[in-house]
Amino acid sequence: MFNFFKKSNKSKDIAKDRLKLIIVHDRVSTEPDLLESLKDEIIEVISRRLTINKSDIDIKITNKVVDDTNKEMPVLEANIPILNIKGK
């Protein structure tokens, strides 16, 4: 009986996380084209000064607590592998 409730909580948490993700994307009006455009522009700017691994770039918008008020806000996260700094 208790295992039934635990599984329900996991399903509830998964559904809650998915809903948060949907809300974040709606709030910042992120469409796949917008994220792809942002990614292209970030790559263009960073490539002027750094040699990067373009195939391993991961750019996404998530929801994070960003201050002491425990407010969640949309955050742009970019993981960009740097191979070399140009000019050095």
Compact summary:
Helices cover 48% and strands 26% of the residues. With 88 residues, it is an alpha+beta fold.
Write the layout of secondary structure elements.
Layout: H1 2-27, H2 32-47, E1 50-52, E2 58-65, E3 72-79, E4 82-85
Antiparallel strand pairs: 1-4, 2-3
Give an account of the 3D structure.
- This protein has a two-stranded antiparallel sheet.
- Strand 2 (58-65) and strand 3 (72-79) form a beta hairpin.
- It is 48% helix and 26% strand.
- It has one domain (2-85).
- With 88 residues, it is an alpha+beta fold.
Give the tags.
two-stranded antiparallel ribbon; two-stranded antiparallel sheet; 48% helix; 88 residues; alpha+beta; 4 strands; elongated; single chain
Q: What string gives the helices and strands in order? A: HHEEEE
Strand content: 25-35%
Largest sheet: 2 strands, antiparallel
Structural class: alpha+beta
Share in helix: 40-55%
In DSSP terms, counting alpha (H) and pi (I) runs of 4 or more, how many helices?
Answer: 2
Strand order of the largest sheet: 1-4
How widely separated are the two ends? 64 Å
Calculate Rg over CA atoms: 18 Å
> How many structural domains?
1
Shape: elongated
Give the rounded overall mean pLDDT.
76
Secondary structure: number of strands: 4
Low-confidence stretches: 1-8
